[in-house]
């Protein structure tokens, strides 16, 4: 199946923006692909393309759609195959779990309850496409858990070997990494997968969101968290990735890196030396925010007026609870707790505001994507170094997760090979 080289022949009416209701009616009826007994319509494909373009900040033009459509169709086929296998195994996803997953997306994007659906609809995206994606992800997690339960057995010797390597490396620099992983599994050729990886790197270089592209296209378990690998010590990743990032600088995109499993695109976000105890250490900040919305078309005078309003409302706040109350009294739906965060993972603009901010003191208002924002540090804390037993348990979990991911890739590859696929485009 040469899926990645398919030329997507969208109708001229779809791309030129004719009446949306007529286009939807036509594209619901038109078949893009058949996956066993399931149909993927042109409407399914177009809606997912809209979602990816919106979330990734890609240019909304014909050339972008042509380039990303094969990747997206592959993702939709994967989702159908995963849901079919879950159904065969008698696995269903509780609607409450799907709602919780979508609520988590809202929280990570600092949206109020219901704000995600509203934002999608305002950009011409049917929220059901994100619902279907979440359902497929949760169903596949249950499939792998059930299938891999008896196949994953991490021995004490393996844990001790991993612990020994951890001790040897604990004072070496840690790398803060994110990944997009594309497996080479026989369903498509080596060259085709590499071309896709190169296109994704080009999209990121042109300003697309790495996190959003990882969520949509990465075939690693980290896709659920936008590709975030966290702080990685030497030896945890494959030799090929270790060598590729050894001399990388923060902010650099590395890859595509070929490993035995496939191609990896690595975002090198930061590097630091851990504490002598081998833990990540460092300060943690519990933060709260106060946000007054500011439209994109707002003038400098309007921005200045709202900034003064935010400053006046927040200056008297002597606690995070008071700051949140001040925001809500002005009708701010985005005011509230941001949780406890490692400041090194904060965007530079926010880190600069809170690094030296005293506890329970409102920071100076600044303009962000959400509007005029005021931050407050509720508490500063330093976590205790984990015990040896906790480190061993973490390493054991990592080994088990790596094996579960290998099983996931093999299962999906085999299901692909046995599936009836009829591509109509």
Describe the structure in your own words.
This protein is α+β, with helices and mostly antiparallel strands. The chain has helices at 12-16, 20-29, 42-56, 62-88, 95-108, 115-122, 128-148, 156-169, 190-205, 210-217, 239-245, 300-315, 320-329, 348-354, 388-418, and strands at residues 31-35, 38-41, 174-183, 228-232, 252-259, 262-272, 284-292, 336-341, 366-367, 372-381, 421-423. It has three domains: 1-170 and 385-425, Porin chaperone SurA, peptide-binding domain (Triger factor/SurA peptide-binding fold); 172-273, Chitinase A, domain 3 (Roll); 284-381, Chitinase A, domain 3 (Roll). The strands form three sheets. It has a four-stranded antiparallel sheet with strand order 4-3-6-5, with helices on both faces. Strand 1 and strand 2 (38-41) form a beta hairpin. The two termini are 13 Å apart.
Q: Could you give a quick summary of the protein structure above?
A:
This protein has helices at 12-16, 20-29, 42-56, 62-88, 95-108, 115-122, 128-148, 156-169, 190-205, 210-217, 239-245, 300-315, 320-329, 348-354, 388-418; strands spanning 31-35, 38-41, 174-183, 228-232, 252-259, 262-272, 284-292, 336-341, 366-367, 372-381, 421-423. By secondary structure, it is α+β, with helices and mostly antiparallel strands. Helix 3 crosses helix 4 (62-88) and helix 8 (156-169) crosses helix 15 (388-418).
